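Exercise (ungraded).
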Amino acid sequence: MPSNWRLKTYLSLFLILFSVYLLIPSLLGFNELREKAEKEGDKPPWYVQLFPNKQINLGLDLRGGIYLELEVSVDEALVHRSEIIVGELERFLKEKNIPYQSIRVLPHTSILAIVLQNSEGLNAVQSHIKDIYGNSLKELEKPPQLVYRLADSSEEARLAKFQEMVQWAKGQKQILDVQLDKGEIYVVLDQKASADEVNQSILSAFGGVLQQAPSMPSLFLAQSEAYQEKLKDETLKQAVETIRNRIDRHGVAEPTIQRLGSNRVVVELPGVRDPDRAIGLVKRAGKLEFKLVDESIPDAKVKELVETARTENKIPEGYTEEIVGQINEALKGKIPADSEVAFEFQYDSGTKKVVGGIPYLLKKKVEVSGEMLKNTQVSVQNNEPYVSLSFNPTGTKLFGDLTSANIGKRLAILLDGSVSKAPVIKSAIPNGEAQITMGYGDYQALLTEAEDLVVVLREGALPATLKVATKTVIGPSLGKNSIERGFHATLLAAAIVITFMALWYKGSGVLADVAVIINVMLIFSCLTLFGATLTLPGVAGIVLTIGMAVDANVIILERIKDELAAGRTVKAAVENGYKNGIRAVVDGHLTTFLSGVVLYQYGTGPVRGFAVTLMIGIATTLFTAVVMTRLAYDYLLTKRHVTKLSI
Amino acid sequence: MSRMFKKDIPFMKYRWWLFGFSLVLNLFFVGFLFTHGLNFGTDFKGGLNLVYQFQTTTSEAQLSEILNKAGLDHFVVQKFGIDDQKTFVIKGDLHDSKLGQEGKLENMSQPFTQALQAALGADKVSLIKEEYVGPKVGKELMTKGIYAVVWAWVIILIYMAFRFDVYFGIGGIAALIHDVLIALGAFALFGREVNLTVVAAFLTIIGYSINDTIIIFDRVREDMVKHKGMDLVSLVDMSINETLARTIITSLTVFFVVAVLFFRAEGDLQNFAFAMIFGVVTGTYSSVFIACPVFIFLKRHGHRFGLGKKKTAVAST
């Protein structure tokens, strides 16, 4: 008998007992007992406390829940950052009294364009930018936009020409956008485009009515690549953080929120009963903005413009972000360049469905935004829930200035781009308090909506829009069914394999069977210990392991048979059988393990669960089928002096 | 009892016949890939996968009719459960005209649920699983799946070359490629859905098959040391016969297990088991009839192609 048999025996016994200890809470459902006790404010029963607070972590496919992969539009964050910088620079220009024509972010890019009225302030601006933004902004050498002037003619003829040009530009890959502002046409170029080439083609198409505007001293700034990478990374981190906070507030047990690659977030919510609400909460942008209503065009005229734009351009009904974008695109030139159209939803009081939208013409500039909020809470007045807002000092000051300077005008409150309300400013509001009323509907639904809105506003806006890339919702009944079926299949497969082995190899087969049973136990306890997730394919992995685990024993037992047939003593046969068999067993299992590793690397969700059980299964198989059975033979041969093997 | 396997079957005598047969079989199955095409699942194609449970017994035809009437097209209705006619899976396409109009991909299940509830009663229909995969993700998952299989081959080749030698390695990989191609062909032939779980099955087949091959190769390696100077073909035959009992018993136990899964499980798991049933058969077959002939050929002629030197080709243990 090998000298370290004692150690091995103790180790094996310890492992078996330990895995029983780990599995008891899962088998007896201690977590439920624990939760029940906690709900009632009691301590869990003493026998529950005795065991670890760990249970097998069931995957979403077994317990029901939501799996979401959200794509974060990181590019949006870049544009947003450029907009902030524009605000900062504009303040600088005003402070220093540098006369400027325009300062803006070029549409469809994150490039900042500053056009000055004369070249005097140019150096000051350049050195200021260098001081403040350093390497994060770099000056573009070739201008990313071309400016043209339309030949003098009537306003209407100009507009028609402009629209013709917009249509023409749609077919040009090098042109990102065309805009009309104060009689000048701005053509935004793709960064790779050749300005000369585009200029040529524009002049050849519209040369008669168009001429290049005299170039003004201007600066074009792009974010450096390193800076963009950093911003994107920050955006994704922030998205993960914001989502996590919202979900935590929502009260979902054991959510998993992780980033995936360079622009995705994975959200797993086990056991959620109202998936739509949860997804809505996660996905809601939570962007709160206050914008002034542009009163230069009367409401009725705006409505008319929108309707003609819809019919002329065949824009479908609806008020999604996409559709509103199309409408604004179509209205170009007809509305001031610094204004845009947004809608207020109209609800059917019965079904609570959106039945229409009131268009508003709003100034593009965001006067006050959600970042300046100090507190938000749900209040109820006259049985109508609403959300009350209070601003931080900056917000309070801006809000106060804004309201006092625009008395009699309307101020639109926008939530995620749609108007929630546009009240007339009756007097200055110096205390920084505002309200958002809910739509129409039954009290309980409105209250829930108000509560969700508060969660979203409190945790802050998402740094960029999220798009659902993939979604899986599994109802709890499917999960229960799957567990039962998987469990039955496992039992049946195990029973067949065990019977077969016992019949074929007799006593030695029974020994191998014991090893398989211990093996399955060890797999489950490893899953518990490592907090790995058991998924439905994972169950299949365990079933397969049962089938394959006996292979190790079969290899060794066949070797022993060969040795016995060659006339060796039982002891020598066992010795040689293990010695020769083990090499093949290890090589075979290691390669299978490697394919498990590859699967883990490339798989997602349930498939990963399968890879995990497969890998754990191989490790435990090597232990039970090689170490443990060997120990048993050693015991039989040296302690019991068995001379005839039942094989 | 195992005496019944102790035979001296001259497998390798017919190795070229068998190898040729396998080649034809492979071409045949690869042919299915081209003629039938693979039925990619939602994972890879992108789209909607909705599992509904009904209180009353219904049928594919009835459900299709209801949905067609509601103006939905581009979908497939399939029975999901194995026992009753109450659980069905509806696979919606991203090209569905109605869904396209809705413009909101995330709530794509709504028109289906509404149509079914309107026809069968709101409380009689419950959506128990909803899966939406965007087209981008679908493509990514497909690439990942292909990478997974190819990487498994590469890693196993490296491992085999390292632990055995290049000839054994290439023999093993040839068998693995054979197995995956046959399994893919079988999926094309039977029109079964290929999704991520099936890729997992392919990798499991790879693991199983290489295990099987290694057991034989290990014995070949051992016999080469024991019986130096013996004719290679007879030596490989001897090794195959020596391990035959184990090969049969193990493939039987694994076969039992996957058969149980195939008949007892539903949905994805059944697909998994379907792949495995093929895998167990081809994995066992290919170890003897693909891996061994390729090994013998390379061992004899490999040095001509610059694969290893003749001297080091003697197996080391």
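Further reading is listed at the end of the chapter. For now, observe: Residues 310-317 of chain B have pLDDT under 50 and may be disordered. The radius of gyration of chain B is 25 Å.
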